[in-house]
Amino acid sequence: MNCQAISATALTGKSVVGTCGEPLGTIEDIIINADAGQVTHVIVRTGGLMGSTLGAHHHALPFSALIPCTDGSRFRLDLSETELERLPEIIDGDYTSLSDPLSQRAVHYLLGMERSTP
To answer: Distance (Å, rounded) from C-alpha 7 to C-alpha 1?
Structure first.
């Protein structure tokens, strides 16, 4: 992927679709590693009644797992809805699992990604 600048505002609200183009959720928030100054994860909201947060679930996905669609309107994730539901859920904005190596290893395994750091 080319190094391209994109604003956080432009990312939030973008749709995330699965391998077959099925809707998975919406990017709701962006997580930045303050030490490295890089976006590391996005928070994807799934479910919810009629677009509301009632009944919604939040999952932190490595930003590198998202593939921008050519038209720029959404991102693709090489997962099905069922596979996405297996990922750990972020509850009440508790992002501590993002700094837990064991938890992150599990997420990378489920996503079929090689972890870049031990």
So the answer is: 17
3-state class (DSSP) for residue 15: strand
Which pTM value belongs to this model?
0.78
Torsion over CA of 24, 27, 28 and 29, rounded to 10 degrees? Answer: 140
4-62 confidence digits (pLDDT tens): 777 888 889 999 999 888 999 999 999 888 888 888 889 999 887 665 566 788 998 88
Strand 74-77 to strand 15-17: parallel, antiparallel, or no bridges (unpaired)?
Answer: parallel
Indicate the SS3 state at residue 20. Answer: coil
| Residue in the block written with tokens 């009632």 | 54
d(CA 80, CA 118): 27
CA distances (Å), origin 59, targets 15, 35, 70, 71, 111? 14, 22, 24, 24, 12
